[in-house]
Amino acid sequence: LVKLTIDGFEVEVPKGTTVLEAARKIGIEIPTLCYLKDVNKFGACRVCVVEVGPRLLASCTLEAENGMVVKTNTQKVREARKAVVELILSNHKRECTTCIRSENCELQKVSKELNIRDLRFEGEKTHEDIDSASASVVRDPEKCILCGRCIATCSEVQTVYAINFARRGFKTKVSPAFNKSLADTVCINCGQCIMACPVGALHEKENIKEVWMAISNPEKFVVVQTAPAVRVALGEEFGMPIGTRVTGKMVAALRRLGFDKVFDTDFGADLTIMEEGTELLNRLNKGERLPLMTSCCPGWVKFVEHYYPEMTENLSTCKSPSEMEGALIKTYFAEKMGIDPKNIVTVSIMPCVGKKFEGQREELSHNGLQDVDYVLTTRELAQMIKEAGIDFVNLPDEEFDNPFGESTGAGVIFGATGGVTEAALRTIYEIVTGKELENIEITAVRGVEGIKEAEIELNGKVVKAAIAHGLANARRVLEMVKSGEKHYDFIEVMACPGGCVTGGGQPIVDAKTRERVDVRVERAKAIYEEDRHLPIRKSHKNPYVIRLYEEFLGEPNSHKSHELLHTHYVK
Ligand code: HC1
Ligand code: SF4
Ligand code: SF4
């Protein structure tokens, strides 16, 4: 332990603690713009300066030392912080009233806290074009404050290296190499950079307008589906605590927005378990193309296509749950309802911006129609609800529509890392052994550890699974498999750390809150609660899945399934 004095108070902290963290222990919140817990810590913005002796030092990189005397609230400190923020603001495209991050902007918040009223240094401004060519992520460099949080996320957490600092001095900017558009780089569209950005310099490509147009077009039958993770985060946009379950209110809101049918992507997840489980058993029997790797995360799929093309054949050929459901809405459901599929518009509400890219992939279509027409993030849905003036918090709980509204606990846990594996094991075990799985909560695959492992015995044969979330972890797993250090039969990867609950389309939690709350844990808790509250918790017991096979698909991996529910990859 080390003992130091902050603003006259004695503080004892473990060695290695920064002054910023030590100050928090005595209730002092030092402002910062570049610091992001576990990700970015290099003192770039200098908003967090404190006085130590005659010097002003950045507290986010300053290690607490024995006998150190720190002052966080002197005239000199306040002046310095103000000057730093004023300089940032002087070269910032300040369009606060129309900015996508209005009211959720860390720069806005710090400026307000520091009582900045007028800018003393208004001067030259850099001019940069907006890059909106990517299907998922829009970059607005004139709003960038060069904190480096997105770069650290893309490089260290995801090991994708799509963006970096370019040029020097006043002209410094964050950009893909050679000033390319993000659309023409290795970017895998996870949107984790958006989650890291304190301002409006990075955001999702919005599709709200297109969806409003479809809803107001009387010729169109607009069908919406919602991903597992949306229901445990949407409430945050309306002031509810992190990890609040709002499934029923979400359904009610979607009806009030004017969607003709409200379906649940969890149904697609159940179906994925049937298709992917069967695929796994077939590959195990034949001993080929193992380990089988999950394919529901478009960020991960693109990562494999780009960085591990030799392993694309290990990817499951299953489309993602939302794409499967989209394909069925335009075939099975359209037939049942007697609607021309050309007049159906399918909208997916996802915690993800990568799904926008996925939705546009050519191969995810049938008879010339895309399976999913528009993807909206959780944030965009919240925006539409606000625009419509719906009092979300006081909505009644409503139920999804059928046939794609009935889903199981296995479907909902897809939203947290480890969930696909747990759901798959619940079903595969029972199908192979013919016995009932007693302990269906498979805790070995839960939690936020970067790489998890699990084994299950199926009629005397041990099947080994690995689970990774965050692509740096996925890369480690693949390297271990390639070197022969590890052997697995099944690998689940979600590109986003924590899985979809903390996907790039979810409500953005600021850096300060992220220091105190592990958002992944809180939202995952809600996911598992949701599972516990559902009457059916295994995908193969979903009555509508069973009926779908009887009426339409035949059996898992049938010819029809392959035609509608499976895909192929780019090498
Ligand atoms: Fe996901 Fe999935 S779990 S990929 O993370 O397999 O987006 O929630 O909808 O499709 O079901 C996302 C979440 C989601 C799909 C499912
Ligand atoms: Fe990197 Fe993901 Fe952002 Fe693309 S979306 S730049 S891969 S963090
Ligand atoms: Fe999208 Fe989920 Fe993959 Fe993140 S982990 S990119 S939210 S599918």
UniProtKB/TrEMBL annotation:
Keywords (A to Z) from UniProt: 2Fe-2S, 4Fe-4S, Iron, Iron-sulfur, Membrane, Metal-binding, NAD, Oxidoreductase, Repeat, Translocase
Short name of one Pfam family: Fe_hyd_lg_C
Subcellular compartments: Membrane
SUPFAM superfamilies per UniProt: 2Fe-2S ferredoxin-like (SSF54292), 4Fe-4S ferredoxins (SSF54862), Fe-only hydrogenase (SSF53920)
Keyword Nuclease: no
Cofactor: [2Fe-2S] cluster; [4Fe-4S] cluster
InterPro entries in UniProt: 2Fe-2S_ferredoxin-like_sf, 2Fe-2S_ferredoxin-type, 4Fe4S_Fe-S-bd, 4Fe4S_Fe_S_CS, Cytosolic_Fe-S_CAF, Fe_hydrogenase, Fe_hydrogenase_lsu_C, Fe_hydrogenase_ssu
2Fe-2S ferredoxin-type domain location: 1-76
Domain 4Fe-4S His(Cys)3-ligated-type: 76-115
GO CC annotation terms, alphabetical: membrane
A single GO BP: ATP synthesis coupled electron transport
Primary subcellular site in the record, as a coarse category: membrane
EC number: 1.12.7.2
A GO molecular function held by the record: 4 iron, 4 sulfur cluster binding
PANTHER family: NITRATE, FORMATE, IRON DEHYDROGENASE (PTHR11615)
Similarity comment: family membership: Belongs to the complex I 75 kDa subunit family.
Name this protein carries in UniProt: Periplasmic [Fe] hydrogenase large subunit
Species this protein is from: Caloramator australicus RC3
